[in-house]
Design goal:
The complex is a heterodimer.
Chain A lengths: L1 H41 L14 H17 L8 H21 L2 H5 L6 H34 L7 H6 L3 H20 L2 H23 L7 E4 L1 E4 L7 E4 L7 E9 L9 H12 L8 H11 L1 E8 L4 H27 L5
Antiparallel strand pairs in A: 1-5, 2-3, 4-5
Helix pairs in contact in A: 1-2, 1-3, 1-5, 3-5, 3-7, 3-8, 5-7, 5-11, 7-8, 7-11
Chain B lengths: L5 E10 L2 E11 L4 E5 L6 H8 L7 E6 L9 H6 E4 L11 H11 L5 H10 L13 H13 L5 E5 L7 H18 L2 E6 L2 H7 L2 E6 L2 E7 H6 L1 E7 L10 E8 L3 E8 L9 E3 L3 H13 L5 H4 L10
Parallel strand pairs in B: 3-7, 3-8, 5-6, 6-7
Antiparallel strand pairs in B: 1-2, 1-4, 8-9, 10-12, 10-13, 11-12
The chains are: A mainly alpha, B alpha/beta.
Chain lengths: 338, 305
């Protein structure tokens, strides 16, 4: 039965593997190219733009352009793990039950000498196993590319969703979604359409509404400083560490803790700050006004050091959802008619 | 072995508002090749799919070889083979790969038997299922069933849409299996000729109900045409159930089921062919010539509702 499950998905799987190998090759070449250009830009004689001799003006401008263009050419590489695994997950999941019912081959499979439970678990195991085998090198490649290219911090929204083990987790979740949807609606085309909709809406919701609740947020209080060059604008110190994912930057009451505030909550505090005297001309006057109001400006963030903790928790949610859906699939497939 | 191969009691299956099968009480004895005959939509496939465990009854009970069909009862699945009317094989597979699938999912699979059958039919193991003709596909699907070394073979219109040669080959393969292994067979068919040539038990279905189920020999023996002049046709005696009546200006002819020989010599008695008996029951099901009381009349044997 294991061979059978593999045979049924072989052509789709090998096609996606072939495409993935091309993507991996492109990502590696692109990542190495960006890395080389960055070293060139940071090294002699341009020093990353921090002071170079006038005679190197043209050369450094060209090196900088090359470096930025290379980063621009790799902007799609962050999709290279999440997209193939999600697509493969949707396709394999839709084929697991709906494909067999649609082609009537379920009538052949379900009248052999194995139980439907065993048939289902074998197909699911082979589908998931092959999905994981594909996802691992893709996840490693994209995670490496993010580090090499420094296109975005790994904890940022784009970095986090598309690297680490998130593509693997979302891929197996996509598989489970189309398995259960396919068991109910029995048509692979519609199953993929529904699965696609779920895989757009759910990760988006996870990214915008759930992720910030999965790890304790950290905060830092911003201190205003005068920018000496202009004399009349403000600068700040005490910002979140480099590569942190800053979720909130605003005015909150002192002692409010590290919980995110809503726009509605923040409005009266901002109104109060706006009542500070209009002739506040320096950071100390502004800070004194904030102190009087019992407010301060903070940044709430997830630190880079919390990356794997967040990966485990969000990925764990997807895996728990996968287990739940596949359990429901096992229950339903025993009852569905062919 | 006396356990019926298929036994149902008040079996019914509803699809939305439509009944696919209702009030089905039936007992097909072992050691038979049983034919289910009836028009499209009569409930034959519905009954066979429930017997194969592919769908569940809305109400009533069904047992197959003494066990309730279940998706989780591997021991029963092992003893029963099912050939669907669309002969669903995996497109893109080689014949050899179909057999590998069979071997991997059936512990009693006999690969030598499978190879032997397709070899005799001139089908290569390297042939792709997509490239097989309809007849060859049916042969491969039937071979998939036979190589399981099963006790009961359920065939849903196995010879439908086959050319005469393919049909002959398929039926020959089937009869060889029955002769060599004594496999029980329950098949549905529209080909009345097949019923007389390969079956020894008859189930006639119409309008989602069973209207007759009995040994073929007894069916033929218990039915007669009774003819008399229209002007002086006497009343029919007790024990005679009229299945179909044809009247002309001069003569009335009943096809009747009789439990005892007719002694009234006013009636001219002739023996109908099997086709005539089956057609009369199928017309009965459509209500074209008979009243409802005939429709519900019990058969002499076989426990049919």
């Amino acid at each position: 039965m294991t061979w059978m499950a593999w045979r049924l998905q072989r052509s789709v799987y090998l096609f996606v593997v072939a495409v993935s190998l091309l993507l991996i090759a492109y990502a590696i070449v692109n990542g190495l190219h960006i890395e080389a250009l960055r070293h060139q830009w940071l090294g002699q004689p341009c020093h990353g733009g921090n002071g170079f001799a006038a005679q190197y003006q043209t050369r450094c401008q060209a090196e900088n352009n090359q470096y930025l263009n290379a980063i621009g050419s790799g902007v799609y590489v962050h999709w290279f793990a999440a997209l193939p695994t999600a697509v493969l997950g949707l396709l394999l999941g839709a084929n697991t039950v709906a494909g067999e019912i649609d082609r009537n081959t379920a009538r052949t499979a379900w009248t052999q000498s194995i139980t439907r439970g065993r048939w289902f678990t074998t197909k699911v195991a082979v589908g998931l196993g092959s999905l994981v085998l594909l996802a691992i090198p893709l996840c490693v490649t994209v995670s490496w590319w993010l580090t090499a290219s420094r296109w975005t911090p790994r904890i940022s929204t784009n970095g986090f969703t598309y690297a680490g083990w998130m593509p693997l987790a979302t891929g197996v979740f996509a598989f489970a979604v189309t398995v259960i949807v396919g068991t109910v609606i029995r048509r692979p085309g519609w199953t993929i359409a529904v699965g696609l909709a779920v895989m757009v809406v759910l990760p988006w919701t996870m990214q915008t509404d759930v992720r910030t609740n999965l790890v304790p947020l950290r905060s830092t209080t911003l201190t205003l400083t005068t920018v000496t060059k202009q004399g009349e604008t403000f600068g700040t110190t005490g910002r979140a560490p480099a590569n942190a994912w800053v979720i909130f930057d605003g005015i909150v009451p002192v002692g409010a803790g590290n919980t995110l505030v809503t726009w509605g909550q923040e409005t009266p505090w901002l109104d109060a700050v706006n009542k500070c005297p209009s002739n506040v001309t320096g950071p100390s006057g502004y800070a004194a006004c904030l102190r009087r109001l019992g407010l301060h400006e903070v940044e709430l963030y997830v630190a880079d050091s919390q990356y794997w903790e967040l990966q485990l928790r969000e990925g764990g949610l997807y895996l728990a959802g996968t287990a739940l859906l596949l359990g429901a699939g096992l229950f339903l497939v025993r009852r569905v008619k062919a | 072995m006396t356990t019926p191969v298929i036994e149902t009691n008040g079996l019914a299956k509803r699809f939305g508002r439509t009944w696919g099968l209702r009030d089905c009480t039936l007992s097909i004895p072992p050691g038979k090749v049983a034919a289910l005959v009836g028009p499209n939509g009569a409930g034959k496939s519905t009954l066979l799919r429930m017997a194969a465990g592919l769908s569940r009854p809305t109400s009533g009970q069904i047992t197959v070889l003494g066990s309730v069909p279940s998706t989780e009862d591997a021991s029963l699945l092992k003893r029963v083979g099912y050939l669907d009317q669309v002969r669903p094989l995996y497109r893109g597979f080689l014949v050899d790969e179909m057999f590998r699938f069979g071997a991997g999912t059936n512990p009693t699979w006999n690969m030598a038997t499978a190879h032997d059958y397709v070899d005799q039919l001139g089908i290569s193991l390297r042939d792709r299922v997509d490239n097989l003709s309809g007849g060859q596909r049916a042969q491969v699907a039937l071979t998939m069933c036979l190589a399981k070394q099963l006790e009961l073979l359920i065939l849903d219109e196995p010879a439908a849409e086959l050319d005469p040669v393919a049909r002959e080959d398929l039926l020959r393969l089937l009869m060889r299996e029955v002769a060599e292994r004594g496999t029980n067979v329950v098949l549905s068919t529209h080909a009345l000729g097949d019923v007389g040539s390969i079956c020894d038990y008859l189930v006639i279905m119409s309008h989602s109900r069973i209207v007759l189920a009995d040994d073929l020999e007894f069916v033929v023996e218990s039915h007669r045409f009774l003819s008399a002049a229209s002007s002086n046709a006497p009343a029919l005696p007790e024990g005679v159930t009229v299945i179909d009546t044809r009247t002309s200006s001069r003569e009335v002819t009943h096809l009747a089921r009789m439990t005892l020989p007719l002694v009234d010599e006013t009636w001219q008695v002739t023996e109908p062919t099997l086709d005539e008996i089956i057609m009369a029951y199928l017309r009965l099901g459509t209500g074209s010539t008979l009243s409802q009381s005939h429709y519900d009349a019990p058969t002499a044997r076989g426990g049919v509702s």
